[in-house]
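Thread title: Can someone regenerate the structure for this chain?

I was given the following input by a collaborator and told the matching structure tokens would be attached. They weren't. Posting the sequence so someone can regenerate them.
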Amino acid sequence: MIEGSLARRVHRGLALWRSQGTKIRPIQAGGLSVPSCTESSRIYRVSLADEGRCSCPDWQYRKQPCKHVFAALIWAAKQRQALVLAQQRRAA
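Best answer:
Regenerated them for you:
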């Protein structure tokens, strides 16, 4: 049961990143702002420290990574990948 629930959140996080990944932004106070899937004006604050935290109701209830955390992880990995590629180009 837990694995299926986690897999659904991973897939929903990937879908969120694909549809709204360009709207994920760093927050000055730390963490990332990640848009809601259902309410266009709602933004959740995600921290990737430790195992990840989110201000959304799902994370508040489960205390486990939600789709917003997974979308933020994908965004962060893509940002890191872009930095590495840029450094490689400069070094070449």
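The first strand starts at residue 25 and ends at 26.
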